[in-house]
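Data availability (excerpt). The following record was deposited with the supplementary files.
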Amino acid sequence: MSGCSHGSNEGNDSQKAEDAAINRSLSCIKHKLLVMSGKGGVGKSSLAVNLAVGLSLKGYQVGLMDVDLHGPSIPRMLGLNGMAPIKQDVGIYPIPVNEKLKVISVEVLMPDKDSPTIWRGPLKIGVIRQFIADVIWGDLDFLIIDSPPGTGDEPLTVAQTIPDAQAIIVTTPQEISLSDVRKSINFCHQVDMPIMGLVENMSGYICPHCGQESAIFKKDGGKRTAVSMKVPFFREYPF
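Predicted structure:
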């Protein structure tokens, strides 16, 4: 019995140490933004990358954390193929993209980039917590977090670990996407995560030759959803 008790105390001590490391890291980050979507293929990662790069070009210190553990795409979108973070005794240094932007993703930590990530919930939760506790982010104006589609372990872990995170929800105009995005909005309400705004992506296609706009995926569905569910609407982005 004493052995079981000793193991339990060690586990509690380890948990407390990680919690303290997470709190220290988050205390140096002003704004935490979770980019999420109800379904895949709506341009969520593209928006996260463009938001992070855009903020860095405006002079803000930005971190981009890819918690899409089964389908990480951030490193390839930023041209970081073959690059790896520096690991030291004090922690892991994220990969710098420019003087103001640094990135961490599970893909840059894996020796084979094409190997599937076959992880269950507890392991995924642990990795996300380590991305905050063990990665040396330093002082940041913004931490942009790219999550996988849906309302599973990853966005839930972010909500529970970063209590002051705010959500940016990405959708496309058609109903099949909007039905899923309504679940994302209700998820945020249930976990008490403020919604900064809803973005409608692929909202019309502007012909590069004649300049005429065609609503190939319909239009304004995101705006109508935001109004009906009483969440802020940011803007529409063309295809």
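Summary of structural features: The CA atoms of residues 81 and 176 lie 33 Å apart.
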